[in-house]
Each structure stands twice: as C-alpha cells, then as structure tokens.
Amino acid sequence: MEKVTLKQIAKRLNLSASTISRALQDSHQISPQTKQKVLELATELNFVPNYHASGLRKKVSKTIAVVIPEVADSYFAQAINGIEAVAQEQGFHVLIYLTHESFLKEQAILRELQNGRVDGVLLAITAETSHNRHIRELLNRGMPLVMFDRVCEDMETAKIITNDLESSYLATRHLISCGCKRVALLSASNSLAMSANRLAGYKKALQEQGHPFRPTDVIACSKAEDVNYFFIKTLLSNAHRPDGIIATVEKQATSVYQVCQELNLNIPQKVKIVAFSNLQSAAFLNPSLTTVMQPAFDMGKAAAANLCKVLKRKNLNILPETQVLPSVLHIRNSTG
Amino acid sequence: MEKVTLKQIAKRLNLSASTISRALQDSHQISPQTKQKVLELATELNFVPNYHASGLRKKVSKTIAVVIPEVADSYFAQAINGIEAVAQEQGFHVLIYLTHESFLKEQAILRELQNGRVDGVLLAITAETSHNRHIRELLNRGMPLVMFDRVCEDMETAKIITNDLESSYLATRHLISCGCKRVALLSASNSLAMSANRLAGYKKALQEQGHPFRPTDVIACSKAEDVNYFFIKTLLSNAHRPDGIIATVEKQATSVYQVCQELNLNIPQKVKIVAFSNLQSAAFLNPSLTTVMQPAFDMGKAAAANLCKVLKRKNLNILPETQVLPSVLHIRNSTG
C-alpha cells in the first residue's frame, strides 16, 4: 500500500495542501464544510500525518523521554510503571532510553535529545557519571527535565529521591543490633550522590555504635556482574571477613547468596544481609531477605507528575525543589 | 542559551541556508573550504540540527522501536539487553514502548509508528491481542517489522521464538515422573500462539502418560496480580487440588510460593512447581525453583540482527522465516 500524502488529498479535493493541513488540525480558519470533506477523504484513504513534518509544525511531540541505567532491576521496572501511569493519564507517550551504566552513552543520548524529539526528560544518571555538563546543556536549551533516584544534588531542577542516608543508617544499626561485629557496605558507585548518602548513613551508624570505619569494608560495584561476584567472594573468603553485609544494589544480594552457598557460610548464622531491593521474591528466598524497599512506583509517579504539570502549562518553570519519599526496612530471616 | 538555527549560521557566513545544510551533510556539491568554515562556526555555536527537519530530509531516523508488554519481567529485561547489544553495534537507537498487556495501547502505538518516527519495529504482542490488522497495516505501509517471543504465526514477517510446545511437554513429563498425579497449567493468555503451543505440549505429555486432561486445570492469567493470586489460592484450596503446577509466567511462581506458604502446603512434598522464568534468584528461592529458562538475550539479539540487516540494505526485504532458539529445563528442589 502506497503512503497517502497531504498533496494527494489536496489534489483530489482541488484545495491547497496548507488548507488540508489546517483542516486536519481543526483550525478556525477553515469552514466546517471543508473540514468535514477533508476528514472524510483522509479517513477513507487512511492518511497518517508525517511525524517529522507534524513535529516541525507544532513544535511539540507529546512525548517524554525516560533515561535510566537499566530495566533488569525491579526498582527501575517499577519506577517505569509509575511514570507510565501518570503519562498515560496526561496524554504523553513515554520513550525509554537505556544507558547501561555508560557515561558516554548517557552523554550521547542527552545530546540527541536536544534536537526536539521529546518535550521533556526524566533522568536517573549512571554510576559512572562524573560531571553534569551534558545535563546543564540540555537544561540551558530550555528542555524541561526532572531527575529521580540518582540525581545531581547541585542541578537546578526538580529532584525526586528517597531517604538514602537514613535508610542505610537504619540498615546498619539493625545489623549491629543483631550482633554483627563487622559490617561491610556494597556500594553502587564512587560518584553518585545517592551512594555518598548511603555511605554517610553507614558511617554514622558505625560511629554511634562505637564501631571503627574501615575503608576496605566499602566495595564499589562494577558494571560487570562477574567482577562483583569476584569482589564479594574475596571479601567473604578472608579470615577476618565481615559478619554483616549491606547490599545497596539488588543484584548484589543474589551474588552474596551464591557466594555464601559456595563457601558454606550459613545466612544468617555466619553472615547477615540487608539489601536495597524491590524484588517481589525477597520474602521467598532461602532465607527470606531483609530489604530496604524504595518507593519506586511512587517516585516514578512523582517525577512524571512534576514534568507533565510543566509541559501542560508552557509558562510554568520547573522549580528546583527536592521531594523525598521514604523507604521502608522489611526485616526478614537473612538478619536472623 | 538560545538555540542556534541554520539561518543564523548562514547569515553569519553570508551563505544560503541550503549551502550550510549541505555542508553539514558533507555533500560533494560544497567545497572543502566552505565545509571547514561551516563546521567550525557550527561547532563554536554548538549547533544541533533540528530532529524533525533532519528526519524529513533524510527519511531515516536510525531508530528502532521495541514494543513489548512490560519490563518488570526478567525475560523482557534480558531480551532488551540482547536487542541493545546488536543495535548499538549497528548504530541504531532503541526506543522502548510498553503496552502493559493492553491491546488498545498496542494498536495506538503501532498506529503512531506509521508516521515515520522509527525505521523499524521489534514486536512482542500483548496477552489480549485478538487480531492482527494493526500489525498488517504497519507492514503494508512498508515498515520493516520482526516479531519475537509472542508472535502471530500467520504474519508474513520474520519471527524469533523458542520451542514452547516442547518446553512445556518436557516440564509436564518431568512433573509426572516426579510422582505428580494432577498437573495444573497457569497460562499467559487464551489468545497467544505461544500459550496455545505451551498448552499443546502440556496436553501431549498428559496423554502420553495416560493422565486425563481437565479444562479446569488450565487457568488463564489476568493482567491484575491480585486476580491471579486469587485464582491460584482457589485452585490450591480445593480438596482435589493439583500436586503439580506449571507456571508459564514468571510472576505466577512468586504467587504460588506465597499461596503455598499461607496454606501451609510444603513445596515440593505437597505441591511441585516448574516455572517459565529467567529470574537470577531462582536458585536461591526456598526451595530453589525448577525453571524453563528461555534464551531471552539471544532471542533479543536475533530479532535485532534480523531487523538491522534489512535496515542497512534498503533493497532487502524481511523474509517470513521463523527462527527457533531452544529453552532449557533447570531441575531444582521445587520438583523434589
């Protein structure tokens, strides 16, 4: 089937292409009779407006981009569902761009988004992202942008986060109250503000409980699963191994379970573990996993609501406000 | 920062806008000296071509759409990673559109994709999709499209599937060989070819082993998690409850574990379970979960490779061939 063009419709009706275009956009400059005629023929011929031309004309795409590190993680999968719930209600399409934790890819995507394909952006940065010039550039070009979960704290835009410092403080205190003498922290990154906050909460709890802070007990996660597995195995093979672990990335929890099985270390007798995780199966693991559950769905909703509000009213600017939604500690058998 | 336009660059250099445009596209009609001058100023002013105008001119977007039911499922999360691996290598962007198992949303998305935003489409249909006119329409408009996992068997395009019939046949036979007298099938849908094949494999195994087929032992999954939970609870509360379950959707496995815990039904003594699942934590569930693991990553790669090959060579058509990548049965403690 040949694609029908505006010009062909114009020729058939003996009208100009711009009249057809205006009629299809329900312009007040066109009479109801003409509109009716145009619509009938367009429907009959199954005419679809060209996206690029239509975007040029209207300067809006009714689309928002979600730029995130990955989807193979229940936090981001649930956050997307929250974003889509709001976007659908507000009449926006959602496009998902994955950075796969690559800073280079994040820069390329944000550069690409400068060219008007979308009306606004929701962003959670990679674990590698070491500066924010690419984000600032996009904002400077007038692109509405809201950050969530993994934010740049100094960025002048709306941010949706959870109480990372308090959550890891409570997780660490919980492990110590369960009898742990040495708690290790598996961190997501050396550069993320989120990770710095989780580290600060961990340090605060150690200090309060009179435990020394050992830099070697903090391990920054890699993009490669096998490298993380090796780090965790090395950590737990040590004679002076930790008896408590806080995994701040969901996948690390599975690696800890695997390593403990291989090294014959009983959880929770020998090693206790808390994970930042939204896994639905956490309660059915062997043993059931104590988790810090982030409000992923609600964070996605809040981020999208913030962005859509601004997109719907052109004269509105995004306020550089930070919204904090609390996480919840679910105590289960992996901490005894 | 104001956005720099082609016209402004043209004015500054005292050249026509079309000369600037051609220079930026490295046209042979423009002298190397002029190109150099244009490129330098464009770089200095941080000029970004308008996406819509650029799309109109080139008629390609170097983008493929991935239309899938959801990402909160490790099959699709892993398939996306396979798709991205190939797309990145071949220089294509990937946009993810989620249908959330809504047939209406799938139709709206495919209609939207007719307008040239992307060069090609990878599609896994919803559990609700009851006809394929919307897919045929997109194909008729010349959009290259490859289906994967959840395909329409009669669609004249490339399809990447796994051996669904054989997999559920082997899963059912395995449960019967473990002593199950009554095996129930939790199905994804009443309309998907994939589900029909899994049902056929289940029936084949029952028949071979001399077990009667009871239509009431096949339960079609709903979009709503709480409805599925209710179905499973009803099924397992029955005095004549099944002693074996095949969950063909990953999430159903967690629901079965939950219901068994609540009803105090020991897995595997009272109920044995096999799930179609790519969950990394399957081996660490209590008890560890016997799974049919689909080649998700490789299926994503194969689908993307098929599409990119055609997009790179305009004179090529997608051959209506079906590629079958086998799944693997991993036997663990949930089947005794």
UniProtKB/TrEMBL annotation, chains A, B:
Residues 4-58 form the HTH lacI-type domain. Keywords: DNA-binding, Transcription, Transcription regulation. The keyword Transcription regulation applies. GO terms for molecular function: DNA-binding transcription factor activity; transcription cis-regulatory region binding. Pfam families: LacI, Peripla_BP_1. Gene3D superfamilies: 3.40.50.2300, lambda repressor-like DNA-binding domains. This is Catabolite control protein.
